[in-house]
Amino acid sequence: MIDISHLAKKFAVESPKKLSEQEKKDPRLKGRFFHSVKDVSFRCEKGEVVGLLGPNGAGKTTTLRILSTALKPEQGEVHINGINVLKDPVLARKKIGFLSSSTGLYGRLSGRENIAYFGQLHGLSKARIDEKIAEMADLLDMHSFLDRRAENFSSGMKQKVSIARAVIHDPELVILDEPTTGLDIMATATVMSFIERLKAQGTPVIFSTHHLDEVQALCDRVVVINLGETVFNGTTAEFADLSGGHMHQSFLHTLNGTKEEHSNVVNL
Amino acid sequence: MWLIFKKEFMELVRDRKTLIFMIALPVLVFPLLIGGTIFFTSNALEDAENKVLKYAVIGNANVADINSALSEDGSMLERVTLTAEQDYVAMIQADELDFVLEVPTPFNSEVLESGQLAINLYFNDAGLNKVYQRVSAILTPLSEEYQLQAFRALGLSESQQQAIVTPMLINRENVADNREVWGERIGAMLPYFLFFLCLQGAMAPASDMGAGEKERGTLETLLISPMPRYKLVLGKFFAISLSGVIAALVTVSSMALWTVIISQGLAVGFIVELLSSIGVLDFVLVFLMLVPVVAVFASLLLSLSIYARSFKEAQSYMGGLVMVMIFPIILAMMPGIELKGVWVWVPLTNVALAMKELVKGTMDYVALLGIFGSTALIAGILLAFSVHWFNREKVLFR
Fold this sequence. Notes:
The complex is a heterodimer of chains A (about 270) and B (about 400). Chain A has about 270 residues and is of the alpha/beta class. Chain A has a single domain, classed as Rossmann fold (3-Layer(aba) Sandwich), CATH 3.40.50.300. In chain A, about 35% of the residues lie in helices and about 25% in strands. Chain A is built from ten helices and eleven strands. In chain A, the strands form two sheets. Chain A has a six-stranded mixed sheet, sandwiched between helices. A five-stranded antiparallel sheet of chain A has the order 2-3-1-5-6. The model of chain A is unreliable at about 260-268 (pLDDT under 50). Chain B is mainly α and about 400 residues long. Chain B folds into two domains: about 1-35 and about 175-395, no CATH class; about 50-165, D-Maltodextrin-Binding Protein, domain 2. Chain B has helices at about 1-15, 15-50, 65-70, 90-95, 110-115, 130-155, 160-165, 180-185, 190-210, 210-215, 220-225, 230-265, 265-275, 280-305, 310-335, 350-360, 365-390, 395; strands spanning about 55-60, 75-80, 100-105, 120-125. In chain B, strands 2-1-3-4 form a four-stranded mixed sheet. In chain B, helix 3 (about 65-70) links the parallel strand 1 and strand 2. The longest helix of chain B is centred in the N-terminal third of the chain and has 35 residues, at about 15-50. In chain B, about 30% of the residues are buried. The model of chain B has no long low-confidence stretch (mean pLDDT about 85). The interface between A and B is medium-sized, with 33 and 24 residues.
């Protein structure tokens, strides 16, 4: 279980004068600081899949980076199965599997070597790494390219290897930042079935996405972030009910409304 | 940490660009450059020596001694007769003539009566030619003969003649041994090559291990691995350092080997003499002194690389760093700058000067320990700074 409460994160703006007019109008810009995340709170229980929604620049990636320990928040707390992520980030990292939105791989290493390297970083034995790679090669259909250098991989191949790399150490929580962006239908289906498998195993999954059909198909809960704040936090059914079952309308509804308007479903 | 080092080095070895710059370039290109330069230079010199020179004599064209001296080398010279209207300077510039001798009138071989005879030699001295040397070689014996005639006319003994020609003779009595002489000449160049090559060899890997991680999108994943940040930095630092050292050693070895092979006879003599005069300990110390220098370079390069947003940005920062780093090394090559006084405390310059002293065999080993220690301390501070930057969000997520 992961418990996130009242996260806030700001960044210094290097050159405020170089910001576009639209950026200057963003209410999160306060002097030399941009408050990327102002107040984000939600929970993800064991076996739950939480879909993190929000427009571009809403603060989703910053939130996920804080959860993954890559960034430190100015405010708020994150607990994973009782471990305070901010106080003990190294221990927390052992519990987290994180897939960033960039799906970067080491091009001069093979797919297998990319996965094995992160297994070694997590202190796994060679035998365990081999076993896990074999298991994930089956699950993610990677046998045909696993021993080729990653520099010529397609987006789908890269994403599959990245996912395998993120979960090689059997994490207690999996965080995926837009895992299906840029993938073809087949690769998307593979990623989605992998998330379903994690859910079936009882591993909590938080993933950000722009695809509402994925949310509808996979998620138990939906969290919508807008302008750095949680504007919706509820079950997928509650989210759909906001607009009579139309996910897209519900999403727009949460963006246009306020926290108070959704106080019946926002459990902050 | 070794896991990071091993992976980084494996990636380097698999990178064609790095291999080309680290191995192929020094092993193949330097010998080709050295060999090519020697080949073309010696060919050009041989052509200049053997070229049949077209010449004319103006002014007093009928001086028998000069004409006779010139005709003795007849197969290599071709005399041209000029009319008064012909512009001999323009003809030389147009390569129609190689030289023109202007002989004074009157021309009297009795120099005690006539005074010094000034002969003007017109030729084009731009580019490689041997005109002045070849004409001098023809006319100098004649000049010496006139000098001898004058001495005889004055009734001077041989010792008086020598005293007039060279009233004070300064004999060179060099107390420095050959090692010190060659050490002074080559020892100043050695650190320049070693430092520069280390820096060059470390630049591409450093760009790849910092900015490259950002550009590929692998940095974030690496940062959230349970490996402590300082170990990430140390792994990368050692990989960069090793590639710098390998690049320098491969290049210097290749250059030394090929210089000996290509130059054969001439170079072998002094190189073998110099190398055999330097003790094993001094060789070891020269390369030991390289260790903290490489550590300084690797720490700086890694810090710049992790600060840069992209590979290209890292390369531009590093270009500036090369300029800054080369300056203290060039200082050590300046005449009059020795390992004493304030120079003992100038970072990198002191190491370069110490390397020179080691090659010369005049190094004070206690001072060497101090220089090694101070450079290692600087490297340690820079490495700590690099670790600090790897912990700064502002640097990592610019």
